[in-house]
Amino acid sequence: MAIRVLALDLERTLISDANNANPRPGLSEFLAFCLARFERVVLFTTVEEADARSALDHLVECGHVPAELVDPLGYVPWVGEHKDLAFIVGAAPEEVLFVDDDAGWIRPDQRDRWVAIEPWDGGADRELVRVQHVLAERLAIDNRV
Ligand SMILES: [Mg+2]
């Protein structure tokens, strides 16, 4: 199946944490790539939607990320001990790639959908650039484009 949806963790993946909302280096460029290359990009996070949205709004207000890279992001409501990709409405797990820093949230049988990223809490970092290349390779292989 072709990959259509990208799910993104929030804390330690895109930002430091929801309270401080420091942007990971390269965040705007990474989101622009994701929105251009995937049909849908959704947040899959332990942070409640209202708090996730206000953290992203803060990034926009501070000029770190343009609103057009934040507004299209969906949000996945979910419960349970794993971030089960079946919670993503309108896509089969095989059509999803998922970027998260924490292996503990990944369903054992969905590990092939997971793209690991080093946890970030500030400072210089190139992980979003590296992960962008990994995603591009996965798209090229799975979608034969
Ligand atoms: Mg995380």
Write the layout of secondary structure elements.
Elements: E1 5-8, H1 27-37, E2 40-43, H2 49-61, E3 74-75, E4 96-100, E5 114-116, H3 127-143
Helix pairs in contact: 1-3
The structure holds magnesium ion.
Report on this structure.
The chain is an alpha/beta fold and 145 residues long. The chain has one domain (9-143): Rossmann fold. It is 28% helix and 12% strand. It has helices spanning 27-37, 49-61, 127-143, and strands at 5-8, 40-43, 74-75, 96-100, 114-116. Strands 3-2-1-4-5 form a 5-stranded parallel sheet, with helices on one face. Helix 1 packs parallel to helix 3 (127-143). It starts with a strand and ends with a helix. Magnesium ion (MG) binds next to loops. This is FCP1 homology domain-containing protein. InterPro entries: FCP1_dom (IPR004274), HAD-like_sf (IPR036412), HAD_sf (IPR023214). Pfam families: NIF. Residues 5-136 form the FCP1 homology domain.
Overall, the morphology is: globular
- Percentage of residues in helical conformation: 25-40%
Overall pLDDT level: 97
Please work out how many helical segments DSSP would assign: 3
Per DSSP E runs of 2 or more residues, the count of β-strands stands at 5
CATH superfamily membership: HAD superfamily/HAD-like
Radius of gyration, in Å, reads 14 Å
Describe the sheet with the most strands.
5 strands, parallel
Placed side by side, the strands forming the largest sheet appear as 3-2-1-4-5
- CATH-derived topology: Rossmann fold
Structural domain count = 1
Spell out which ligands are present: magnesium ion
Strand content: 5-15%
CATH level-1 class:
Alpha Beta
Based on the structure given, which CATH architecture is correct?
3-Layer(aba) Sandwich
The first-to-last residue Cα distance is: 13 Å
Low-confidence stretches: none
**Helix- and strand-based class?**
alpha/beta
Order of helices and strands: EHEHEEEH
